[in-house]
Amino acid sequence: MKLHNLGQTGLRVSPIGLGLAALGRPGYINLGHAQDLSAGRDVAAMEIHAHAVLDAAWAAGVRYFDAARSYGRAEAFLGSWLQSRELTPDQVTIGSKWGYTYTANWQVEAEKHEVKDHSLPVLKRQIGESRALLGDFLDLYQIHSATLDSGVLQNEGVLAELAQLKADGLKIGLSLSGDRQADTLYRALDIQLADGRLLFDAVQATWNLLEPSAGAALQTAHEAGLGVIVKEALANGRLTPRSQEPKMQLLRQLATEKGATMDALALSGVLAQPWVGVALSGAAAVDQLQANVQAITVDWDAETAVRLQSLVEPPAQYWRTRSQLAWN
What we know:
This protein is of the alpha/beta class. The protein has helices at 43-60, 74-84, 120-134, 156-167, 181-188, 215-223, 249-257, 262-271, 286-292, 302-307, 315-323, and strands spanning 4-5, 12-13, 16-19, 64-66, 93-98, 100-102, 114-116, 138-146, 171-176, 202-206, 227-231, 278-281.
């Protein structure tokens, strides 16, 4: 994979990155996540497993890695991998996120897996925690699932602290969630520093063959110089061979015609968008990662895009379905 700049950040990234949401904790909402952890769910076993997937990603050319404070021990696993492989900060680009606290206590089933809090005290605490685990490797720090109703984009104390972190050398981003991703992003694009520069350097949003509604807003962000990172490109497994939805037979058929897997074809559709800087693989196993990265070799064309247009769901329906996915 050829490296390129992420927007105007100056950060060098691979077109496919690896997100650690499913690797840093024993439970997650991806379809079939339980079977990916057959080697064990204790911390030591999961760290070894995470390192194996990270090794596969590195071998495939992946150079962007994405974690969050709420992904269990994702930052710790990533940090121990970076150290054990004797990598240096100039060899990789690392993003993480603040705003949610992991509360499942290493359980698959929990009353609450994470608690959202976008307050200034949480930002100050979590940036310290992220830096303790990732050190000089941390390049990009993002608000985790910023929404209009959380008030984080109107919180002057938080915005001032983010501006200071930016002045100190970090790139600042926000991730989005829900059927109002575009509205939140447009609000974020209005936030400027005293010198007129935008506060945010990057945005991470959901965009996939089922939920492409944020596309126009992401194009606008790209034109404004932000790096665009796409998460949930495979819709938490719904766009992979694990899906049992009848309508996915079309994706399966087209993938077979192209000699590709369903996931690689779906990811190639993301990579085909001109505003995409990084498409995240959420692979929880080596074979998934190796299948995902084949997306860069898949021929995505206008005919394929038209044929798969029937998969698109109304945003409210997509997010309702996502909210019903079981932790496993």
